[in-house]
């Protein structure tokens, strides 16, 4: 590893002590490496050499942000270091950093490709685009009535239903909002797209899984108040009555660094299930 980037959530390291410690550890284990602090897209654009790895320090939300904002520009593998809470997407806890750096130095790592989604919103006046590692959610405001949604897959009508919203999820996002809404758990290395209704009032509207090459179109009707599109639970815009949402697979995947002893089902049991393997 000659060129190492560091992307840290400043709200979780306000005094800079964690960043200082990480820099010292990297220098100890990789004394010939160059380290770059990545705070914004401008830092990415100003890089003089391609990065071998990007250390992302924070929680799952920090990784989601890095995947959307940085990966499309430089397509660098991400090593998630948890200094947050759940840390489902992270590969290592901050207390295990020495163990992790030794593993990296020994080459005992591998890369997991995680597909991403691109969503584009079209209306009569504007066009909005963004990326998601977890999910795209279209949902009503808290005081709004049910909304009627029309769902198309590859220009063919899948369903028309009334409910609170719709989730379009990657396999990585199957343990996020999709899971809470009754969607299936999907091994994250697969390339599939899940379409999950939120509180459907139409009994025939069921979750469906389609191929990664499918194009999903969502049209909402009969809403008088507020309807929002949210990306990875972090970026949100208000939709108009003329909005059409197109979701498909993004051309670049997010590569997560995991270690040679990585066991997804162990992570699933420890983070989502209890120790007895029960919900």
TrEMBL record:
Keywords: ATP-binding, Cytoplasm, Kinase, NAD, NADP, Nucleotide-binding, Transferase. One of its GO terms (molecular function) is NAD+ kinase activity. It is found in: Cytoplasm. It comes from the Bacteria. Its EC number is 2.7.1.23. The active site is at 60 (proton acceptor). Coiled coil: none annotated. GO terms for cellular component: cytoplasm. The keyword Kinase applies. The keyword Kinase applies. It is an enzyme of class 2 (transferase). It catalyses: NAD(+) + ATP = ADP + NADP(+) + H(+). PANTHER family: NAD KINASE. This is NAD kinase.
């Amino acid at each position: 590893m000659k060129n190492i980037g560091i992307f840290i959530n400043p709200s979780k390291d306000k005094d800079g002590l964690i960043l200082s410690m990480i820099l010292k550890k990297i220098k100890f284990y990789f004394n010939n490496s160059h380290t770059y602090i990545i705070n914004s897209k401008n830092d990415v654009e100003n890089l003089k050499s391609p990065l071998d790895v990007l250390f992302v320090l924070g929680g799952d939300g920090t990784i989601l942000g890095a995947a959307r904002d940085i990966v499309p520009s430089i397509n660098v593998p991400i090593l998630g270091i948890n200094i947050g809470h759940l840390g489902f997407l992270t590969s290592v806890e901050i207390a295990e950093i020495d163990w992790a750096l030794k593993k990296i130095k020994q080459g005992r790592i591998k890369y997991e490709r995680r597909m991403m989604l691109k969503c584009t919103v079209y209306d009569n006046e504007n066009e909005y685009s963004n990326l998601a590692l977890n999910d795209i959610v279209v949902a009503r405001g808290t005081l709004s009535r049910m909304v009627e949604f029309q769902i198309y897959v590859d220009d063919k009508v899948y369903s028309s239903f009334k409910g609170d919203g719709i989730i379009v999820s990657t396999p990585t996002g199957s343990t996020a909002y999709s899971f809470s809404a009754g969607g299936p758990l999907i091994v994250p290395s697969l390339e599939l797209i899940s379409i999950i209704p939120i509180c459907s009032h139409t009994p025939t509207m069921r979750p469906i899984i389609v191929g990664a090459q499918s194009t999903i179109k969502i049209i909402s009707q009969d809403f008088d108040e507020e309807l929002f599109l949210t990306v990875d639970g972090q970026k949100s815009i208000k939709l108009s009555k003329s909005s059409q949402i197109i979701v498909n697979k993004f051309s670049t995947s997010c590569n997560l660094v995991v270690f040679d002893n990585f066991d997804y089902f162990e992570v699933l049991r420890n983070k989502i299930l209890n120790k007895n393997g029960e919900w």
